Amino acid sequence: MNIKFIKWSVCAAFLSSLTYAQEKESLQTTNLDEVVVSDTKFEQKKELSGKVIEKITAKDLEAKKGQSVAAVLTQVAGVEVNGSNSSAGKDLGVYIRGGRNNQVLILIDGVPVSDASGINISYDLRLLPVEQVESIEIMKGASSTLYGSGAATAVINIKLKQTTTKAVSGSAYLNLGTQNVAKENNFDPKSVNQGGAINGKLSKFNYYASVNRTETTGISEARPESDNESFEKDNFSRVNSMVRLGFTPNDKFKFDITGNYDKIKSEFDSGAFADNDENFFSSEQFRVAFLPKYKYRKGELVLNAGANTITRDLFNYGASTIYKSNSVNADLFNKYNFTDKLSLIVGGQFQFFEMSNQSEYVDITEEMAHFNMIDPYASVVYNSDFGLNVNLGGRLNIHNRYGNQMVYNVNPSYTIPNTTVKLLTSVSTAYVTPSLYQLYSSYGDEDLTPEENMTVEAGAEATFLDKKVRLSIVGYHREEKNSIEFDYMMYNYFTYDGKIKVQGVEVNADYAIFDNLQLKTNYTFAELDTFSQAYNPKHKVNAIVSYVYKKLSTNVSYQFVSERTAEYIVYPAPNYNATFMTETLNDYQLVNANIGYKILKDKMNLFLAVDNILDKDFVQTRGYSTRGRNFMFGLGFNF
Q1: InterPro entries this protein is in (predicted)?
Q2: Is pTM, for the whole model, over 0.85?
Q3: What pLDDT digit, counting tens, does each position of 276-313 carry?
Q4: Total structural domains in the chain?
Q5: Domain range for residue 144?
């Protein structure tokens, strides 16, 4: 596909939509009057935010039934989830704005989630079933001022499902799907996903409980190098349970406690183009969150606290390694409203991480591998009545090993009077502390220093046609230094003494063509001045058309991902020294569709999803399989 054509087409579509929107004044508003929380930690109207925040609503998730959390996220501008189109057990990496997995902070109900024993302390999205998710917010850019370490390229805040106002209500579902690579036509159900939930409200108490189970077979994780090879299929299973209890004695105080148990088990191969019928891993997580809120006349006091423990068993090369981790997070913050236009947010966050690693080769004890952070922070939020909105803030990270780290955020925006055009800009910094694995494993270096990050962005957002059309464009420049890299010659982690620079543009254009017909499109451009761009495509396009007619809903999505240059390592004889190689991964295009229908007075719903309709054989990660044309049928009940 001609890249210039894509760029000019997007620009033309943006400008023509802008002109067309100014000329017509009709149609009903869409869901653009959203409330977001990511950029202040408190609810506010989206038009008052100085960030372009992407929100995946419950309605959006309903239209994407059959897709995983990873597949849903990869349709957002600037977001690439590597492994989202691979076998169900393939490890996932979230890459945003030219960054890496450790630069994205994931929250669940406002509480950071992580695996302290992982190489990057990042959260494994495979643990979370989409059926537990209510909505997702993605705020891009350096955000350590409010969220601390790891929020260098984005914050993804996942909100779990909430209770209804009825005393008792519930749901159950069963999804059956195929598991094929391209050019393989096996219609036997190889994926079974089932579960149910019960919830309700009794006076001042509310409750929510759910159970989910997934079993998948049918695709090898590794990809054969030739059509003459045949690899064994790799199985994946997952069990999830969730309980939430809430207490609301009055309109000022609210308290929720949530407990989660998640377990996954999967077979995996030995790497790119390398089959293995013995390797497997399992991961078991216990997670609890405490979420009290207290509103008073001039503001609100919130505590987001949580703890999790994760145990992973990795059987590889004939040996087993047991990883254990414990994490604790407590974030207490208060919003005080001096006036209806000026607010001060003050908070303090405590985080504790520890891990252990046991194998026949090496042991890492919890007494050795642990650290903690205490972070005071503050932000001033000003929303004028003449269009100016300002968000200023700073945070001091006090690390028991690295000392102090200061970050800041300057984020003004301005809505032009008598228009819906909002101009925005921001300068923000972030930091990423080395993980316990990078410090204390046999490959670690205790002299590593925190990575520093800075993002400068500017753009515009506008709504037209009585908010039927939303257009946004933002450009950014990001720099990072003291990046932690791995030396494949010396087999150890080290601090890279140069700078990594990334620049890019993100364009969103949403248009509610009619009351029941909506078009959402986005285009992403991202360019790195160094290192591989295999997981951060230079060009990416998404387009989604949704149509609803009475009880029938349909959704068709298109995705284009440009060429990428993959770097990989070989160890040639006779010296077997690491040698870096490069390979161009071809661009690819995917078309997916979903159709749903509600019957029995909305008590029963059916859906049919078809992924990769054109059955394209493409590469997302060098040496690993991708899914061809696959079907999923789902049946759900509500009571």
Answers
A1: Beta-barrel_TonB_sf (IPR036942), Plug_dom (IPR012910), Plug_dom_sf (IPR037066), TonB-dep_rcpt-like (IPR039426)
A2: yes
A3: 999 999 999 999 999 999 999 999 999 999 999 999 99
A4: 1
A5: 3-638
